[in-house]
Predict the structure.
Amino acid sequence: MPILVSPNKTISDSAIEGVTFDRPQRVIGTLVLDDYEKVVQYPSEWLTKRVASQGISYATAETYARNITYFLDYLKRRPDSEGLTHDEMLLRVRLSALESWFIEQSNEGMDRSTNRNREACLRSFYDYLSDGKFRDPVLERSPFSTKYVTPKPHNKQVVRADLNDLFALMNQSKYERDRVLLQFMYDSGVRISEVERITYNDIRDAINFTNSGFVCSQHNLPVHPGYAPLLIRGSKGRGNSIKERYTLVSTPTLRRIATYHSSPLYKRHQMKYGDRGLCPAFLNSEGGAYNKASLAKLFERLSKKAKKKGLVTKSIHAHLLRHGSAYLILQDPNLGSDYLERLVNIKKTLGHTFISTTEVYTSIPFDIYNSIADEKGAIKSKTDLMEEVVEQTKLRIRIGDKK
């Protein structure tokens, strides 16, 4: 079933034959379409309301829409749905049908957390149809009972990339631009969607930051010698807005980026920008900014090579570097006097809204510990570790290099 998610924009012309506008119209929302590309009313209405007034992201809206379509695919297979429209199927759902779907998914191997998330999505949808808060109710009550149908998810150890995984990925690329980007992502803990918004000027501001050992009111992070604050235009702002925060980047990583920025290769592409300070800090082979899709492909390509050579045991995607970065902060004595203070710093640098999100990092796996401890068992600082990464992986960018 097709899904259309429209960001907030203004349109002047209608794409529908016979429909015209007297004036430009502002549109925002989500459409769930049936197999004949007709709008499924209630899911579309619910998601549009959530995007417009409750501030969920477009990516979240698309996930919720897919959850609804998965449930509809199940309902269409039931004999009691024959002859009904998609909206009618949803309105006639009983608790027994919901229970059967969740059991079916569990039997097919779906993990508990995904099943629980889908239940939470459907609960919200049926609350919307029945509680009267956002529209006149079309149901007397939700088909759900108070108690959740799906079992509570098991607590899982965070899957992350350690330094050995980082080395394995970096060594699969023969380009310094890829290697410096991977080191930066591991060091800073940025989200894959945030990389393209980091500019040359942002890096220069971090490099020029000379004060240390105090809390600056602007970024509210303790800055120890060996680290500098870097502005991140975050992806998780309410209502799809940009939510700014500061992260801490080690000086070895910043020096490596500065060397990359001083190369003829980077400067040649930087000249294309009217304001060179706004040039993306990290450029792809064509001289443009990496976007989320191209970065995901880079990780997929390098990870596949490393896995084929037996250098990694799992596929490494960008978010695993973010988790690895959190563990480095948690163990760095320079980034907090105790565990709790470092946990708060992780929350700030990673851009978590709630400390409960950050608490998944409170136990450190043995392999992570081994990768950040010296031969005597002493924990190395993030700065020391990033210096080692530079020494072992840095490549020279020559004058004639095209990529």
